[in-house]
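Ticket #4471: structure output looks truncated?

Reporter: J.K.
Steps to reproduce: submitted the chain below (259 residues) through the standard prediction queue, then opened the result file.
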Amino acid sequence: MKNKKSIVLIILIPLILAALAGGGFLMYNQMQGQHAENLKDLEKFGFTVLPTSTHSETIGELGAKQLPSTFYESKATPTQKVIKGLMADNEQLIEEQKELRAEIETLQEKIASLQTYKELNEHFAPLSMAEEITAVERQLKRLLLDMPDARRFSNLKIEAMSAAAGHEYKKFIGAKRLILAENEREMLIRDYMPEFAFCVGDGIDIAANSPREERLITIFFRKQDPTILPSNLKADLDTVVKPCQTALYERLSNYDKPI
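Returned output as attached by the reporter:
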């Protein structure tokens, strides 16, 4: 009886070992195939095989769709943790960009407001004295050139006449401490200065004996430097210009600034 059992065991053991070997080989092949699939999924960042998150999709600042987190922190792999960190950094950058845009818009509004304020100040603020005298001379020259009686004067004499009028204007508003708007200045020049300019032009004809002396007189009226003129020419000019100044002062004594 024992011999029969031994014979049966001798026959069954090889069969069992063969079956186990075949099954092990099959399981090994299946594991190798699964490993290859896992590698493919890893290369593609296989989020589809990860646990589903309870978070919802959002729309970023730039309009791009932002996918929800697809894994849980407790089960995250090192690669998933890196990805999650990058996503968090991206969200932080978007928030910082939003804040910077708000600051830029605020600064742009301040710049626009300051530019408007500057333009208003430049429009209504009085000119500097040098700018105002230049405007006076420019206006008077235009007036004189439009008058037929001024055609007897050369351009150089009209320059001298305008410079002399600009100097008297400066003395007048300085003595009265006047700050005139543009229309007020134009009215004063139109109503008071042409007559004075003609008087000065006629005086230059008397005082100057040559074109050179006319140029010296023009420079003198422009710079108001008495050393420019020879003493005899200065004396002659003072003689003919003083009556012009006296007449102008009398007329300006009745000047009332428009209200």
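Triage note (M.O.): checked the attachment and the full token line is present. The mean pLDDT is 77.
Status: closed, working as intended.
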